[in-house]
Amino acid sequence: MLTHVVLMKFTDPRDAPKARELLEGMGGRVEQIRDLVVGLDVIGSPVSYDLCLITRHESAEELRGYQDHPAHLEVAAWLHPRLAARAVVDHDS
């Protein structure tokens, strides 16, 4: 199993709830997602990111399939211009 973790910091943190809604909407639409969790930061410290996305996939090939899926590309098109920073970790789980 492969776990994909993405931290997002938005130029305007008020975009985070809409991002959560859009990301959670992929859960039933993208067959390569085995599990999906989206969390919003509740502390707001100076080093906090605004949103954390965690998806799980059977393999690296499934992760690529998810990343190329039209639903993911649609959400990414909305997200990217709003992001100030993003960090990604993909690990075996």
Key features of this structure:
3 helices; alpha+beta; four-stranded antiparallel beta sheet; 93 residues
Provide a descriptive summary of the structure in words.
This protein has 93 residues and is α+β, with helices and mostly antiparallel strands. Helix content is 30%, strand content 34%. It has three helices and four strands; from the N terminus they run βαββααβ. It has a four-stranded antiparallel sheet. The radius of gyration is 13 Å and the shape is globular.
| Termini gap | 5 Å
> If strands are numbered along the chain, what order do they take across the biggest sheet?
2-3-1-4
Tally of individual helices:
3
Task: Please tell me the overall pLDDT.
Answer: 97
> What class would the helix/strand composition place it in?
alpha+beta
How would you summarize what this structure contains?
This protein has 93 residues and is an alpha+beta fold. Helix content is 30%, strand content 34%.
Lay out the secondary structure.
Layout: E1 2-10, H1 16-24, E2 35-40, E3 51-57, H2 60-68, H3 70-79, E4 83-92
Antiparallel strand pairs: 1-3, 1-4, 2-3
